[in-house]
Design a protein that fits this description.
The complex is a heterodimer.
Chain A: H1 2-24, E1 29-34, H2 49-58, E2 63-65, E3 71-73, E4 81-84, E5 87-91, H3 106-117, E6 132-139, E7 142-147, H4 154-159, E8 184-190, E9 194-199, E10 212-217, H5 221-229, E11 235-236, E12 249-263, H6 273-281, H7 285-293, E13 297-299, H8 323-332, E14 340-346, H9 353-366, E15 370-376, H10 378-386, E16 394-400, H11 406-414, H12 426-437, H13 441-457, E17 461-463, E18 465-473, E19 477-478, E20 493-494
Parallel strand pairs in A: 1-10, 1-11, 14-15, 14-16
Antiparallel strand pairs in A: 2-3, 4-5, 5-7, 6-7, 8-9, 9-10, 11-18, 12-16, 12-17, 12-18, 13-18, 19-20
Chain B: H1 2-29, H2 33-37, H3 44-53, H4 60-72, H5 86-121, H6 126-140, H7 143-157, H8 170-199, H9 202-209, H10 214-252, H11 258-267, H12 271-299
Helix pairs in contact in B: 1-12, 5-6, 5-8, 5-10, 5-12, 6-8, 7-8, 7-10, 8-10, 10-11, 10-12, 11-12
Classes of the chains: A alpha+beta, B mainly alpha.
Chain lengths: ~500, ~300
């Protein structure tokens, strides 16, 4: 009995010791806690948070972005040139190899684009590439990409297209054993537990400092925070604003999410531009950013775009918080105090979605309206958001634009035929459509500015805030996240 | 006894089928999985294409026929969310949940029985009060909160145990404790009250009077008779842990078991995967119930299966 007990004790000691040994060997290794596990590591089928976090380190794109968001050549040797309005020519970076030794060349690009567009793949990413027709090899390191129509967003789209190996991508294990050209390659994916990557010694872009990274999946924000505080994790994603004071270091970036209220400019109470302007003046955006998001949000400048997105208009300023003006405008429009207005929202899909909707309702109530808040379950909410026949008077939505290009935002929410827009403005529609076909980027930017300004003057939305994306970081790790919110390990440094 | 087992297993099949049908219909009536999968601005055309590809555009009865068809082939269909066989995912996760639930039950039983028995020896006195208060705390604390408190104390402050994950046996300790503590509370109360009853029975008084050591009276005679209600409770707790509490505990501790999987399937409207999880858990519940019935007979041979 005693010997057994001793055996047990010595076993425990050995286990503890081995745990310490592994800790000290982690000099160039980091552990990252993600909120969710990748559902697949196939880079084309789906984009979810977990998949992006891992695959952004394994795969690369022809066009990349700097930390500030400028488009630069990635796997392309230079920015592409236009053969004609609907054809772009890429020269490829020579001597690049995939992790399995397969060469990166024109065939890889052709295979990537044709697989993505193949209906059999059932890709959920298709909406990002709906203007592409095909790619054709010119020579080993030159590819032509064909478009349906002139497309101003093309370069941003190519920044979203991860290049896959032509041969290996047909392999059955591609979705669980990804192979890219990136700075890190997959070591293991133990489902439910972790994904481990190690540095790619043959990486064309130089050798990153961090040699090995382990991704863990911790859904509960409080547990992620605890893991960071216990030094189990070096970085945690999606830090809640209320936890900011408790983490060693915060890394933050502008973020992609813009909660906003779409107002019905076509009919009813909100059909009058003065009412819509009043609904803007009534809301204290600054207080919203402070109180609801702990100061980790930025008041939107009268547009549903972030300053780093292409098309952002720096000349616009947010409607100030002015209750007197709001009431006066309502009075001018002949809206009696106590008039009902319907405001639709949802709960649990976006950060503080319900709270934001309710806060806006409270401000509108202050302006003298009787706000009827309806929080719908997500499906029913989506039906209301995208129903083209009956547009809701006012509906909350959180708009994110990972392409960082105004076209997506304007096409969906400004353009009168857009999926979530509520206006009948022909001139605005003309501006948006013209901008998409415009190839001169200076002229294009001018058109976007005009369109965004028109949306501001006509108060198509009750503009709110842009939410910053927060990461909790351990003291030993240095990292400045890029505005495209990619989690790039090669940019991280250990002290 | 063989006939009894067969009869109960047949009951079990009816129960599992019933649960399956209810979950099948209910999950398909609330919400559209395709809309949860696609980016919010995907077009209606894309949504309907994907719906067709996944077979979700068919009427519910036709989908049910498909489902039963795949069941007879021994699988559950392909998970909408992970795009691989749902049965495979469930098989990966099941051992983790079983490990967690059974360890927590063992802990609960080994803590609750001595605690309950100790309290019953001197009802109304100090040790009794301590047990009752501890039990009440145990059974009224929300597990979600308890888990986070244990993490903060043992992982963040003391640094003894890992916060979450499942890499080593150490990772099992906190979640198992969190799952066990409320059970300890409830079980200790049951053991206590049935022990109090038994200790007031003439046979125990006689045994004590004739000079039998108290340890033997309590530990052998009274405990055996008090074991029937406690066994019922353990079975009940086991079922609740498998079918409910494990969800909360596994989510808090990022423990990759069936509970966490059920949660993820619900969040993503993955009806196929959810179906597979519920089906598996229903089978476990039926088996636990059957085992409990057999245990009664073993504990108290007077119980008949007729």
């Amino acid at each position: 009995m005693i010997t057994r007990f001793r055996l047990l004790i010595s076993f425990l000691v050995v286990v503890c010791l081995s745990a310490t040994v592994t800790r000290s060997a982690q000099a160039q290794e980091i552990t990252i806690a993600l909120g969710s596990e990748p559902t697949t590591l196939d880079p084309q089928v789906r984009q979810d948070g977990g998949e992006r976090a891992v695959n952004d380190n394994i795969y690369e794109t022809l066009i990349a972005r700097t930390v500030k968001g400028e488009l630069v050549p990635g796997l392309a040797a230079a920015m592409p040139t236009q053969v004609n309005a609907t054809t772009w020519r890429f020269k490829l970076r020579p001597n690049v190899k995939f992790h399995n030794g397969e060469p990166f060349n024109a065939e890889s690009v052709v295979a990537t684009i044709s697989r993505m567009l193949d209906p059999a793949l059932k890709s959920e990413n298709l909406s990002y590439f709906n203007t592409l027709v095909k790619a054709e090899k010119v020579d080993d390191l030159t590819v032509d990409v064909y478009l349906k129509s002139p497309d101003s967003v093309f370069l941003s789209r190519m920044y979203w297209m991860k290049i896959i190996p032509a041969k290996y991508s047909a392999d059955g294990s591609f979705a669980s054993k990804p192979v890219g050209t990136g700075p890190y390659k997959l070591v293991e994916w133990s489902r439910g537990e972790r994904v481990v990557l190690s540095v790619n010694p043959d990486y064309w872009g130089g050798r990153p400092q961090i040699q090995k990274v382990t991704f863990k999946f911790v859904q509960e924000p409080g547990t992620r925070l605890s893991g960071l505080m216990a030094k189990e994790f070096d970085l945690i994603t999606n830090l809640s604003p209320e936890f900011v004071k408790r983490v060693p270091k915060v890394a933050k970036v502008e973020g992609l999410e813009h909660p906003v209220i779409v107002l019905n400019a076509m009919s009813g109470l909100t059909g009058d531009v003065r009412v819509r302007q009043a609904l803007n003046y009534a809301v204290d955006k600054k207080a919203l950013a402070e109180k609801l998001f702990g100061g980790h949000a930025r008041v939107d400048d009268g547009q549903v775009l972030s300053p780093t997105w292409f098309g952002y208009d720096p000349n616009l300023k947010a409607y100030p918080h002015d209750l007197v003006k709001a009431k006066q405008l309502l009075k001018e429009a002949g809206v009696a105090p106590g008039t009902s207005i319907e405001l639709i929202g949802t709960s649990g899909r976006w950060l503080k979605d319900k709270e934001t909707t309710e806060a806006v309702a409270a401000y509108w109530t202050e302006a003298g309206l009787n706000v009827d808040v309806k929080i719908f379950e997500f499906d029913n909410y989506l039906k209301r958001l995208f129903d083209r026949q009956t547009r809701p008077m006012a509906i909350y939505v959180s708009h994110a634009n990972p392409l960082l290009h105004a076209d997506r935002t304007l096409s969906d929410y400004y353009l009168k035929t857009g999926r979530g827009s509520s206006n009948a403005d022909d001139m605005l529609a003309e501006l948006v459509n013209k901008a998409r076909g415009e190839t001169d980027s200076g002229k294009q930017l001018g058109l976007y500015h005009q369109a965004v300004k028109r949306g501001y003057d006509n108060a198509l939305f009750s503009y709110l805030v842009g939410i910053e994306l927060l990461y909790g970081v351990n003291n030993r790790l240095d990292w400045v996240p890029g505005v495209d919110t990619r989690l790039l390990i090669k940019d991280m440094k250990l002290k | 006894m063989g006939a009894f087992i067969i009869r109960r297993l047949l009951h079990g099949i009816v129960i599992v089928m019933g649960v399956t049908i209810v979950v099948f219909v209910a999950t398909r009536m609330v919400g559209d999985p395709v809309r949860m999968m696609l980016p919010i601005d995907a077009s209606e055309e894309q949504a309907s294409t994907l719906r067709r590809q996944l077979g979700l555009d068919k009427p519910i009865p036709a989908q049910f026929v498909d489902f039963v068809g795949s069941l007879t082939k021994g699988n559950f269909g392909e998970s909408l969310w992970q795009r691989r066989p749902a049965g495979e995912i469930v098989r990966e996760r099941t051992p983790n949940t079983l490990k967690l639930v059974f360890l927590s039950m063992v802990v609960a039983v080994f803590l609750a029985i001595p605690l309950g028995a100790l309290a019953a020896l001197k009802p109304g006195r100090g040790s009794d009060h301590v047990t009752v208060v501890l039990s009440l705390i145990g059974l009224s604390v929300p597990q979600f909160w308890l888990g986070l408190v244990l993490i903060v104390v043992f992982s963040v402050e003391l640094g003894w145990l890992p916060t979450s994950g499942s890499d080593t046996p150490w990772h099992l300790i906190l979640p198992a404790l969190t799952l066990a503590l409320p059970t300890v509370g409830r079980l200790a109360m049951i053991v206590r009250s049935s022990m109090v009853d038994e200790l007031n029975q003439p046979y125990t008084k006689t045994a004590v009077a004739k000079g039998m050591p108290l340890r033997r009276v309590v530990g052998v005679h009274a405990l055996r008779n008090a074991a029937i209600p406690a066994t019922t409770m353990v079975g009940w707790e086991l079922i609740r842990a498998l079918a409910g509490y494990s969800v909360v505990v596994e989510v808090v501790f990022a423990w990759p078991g069936l509970g966490q999987l059920a949660m993820q399937a619900i969040q993503r409207h993955d009806v196929v995967l959810l179906q597979a999880v519920v089906f598996t858990i229903a089978i476990m519940v039926v088996l636990v119930n059957l085992t409990m019935d057999l245990l009664y007979k073993w504990i108290d041979p007077r119980i008949s299966f007729a």
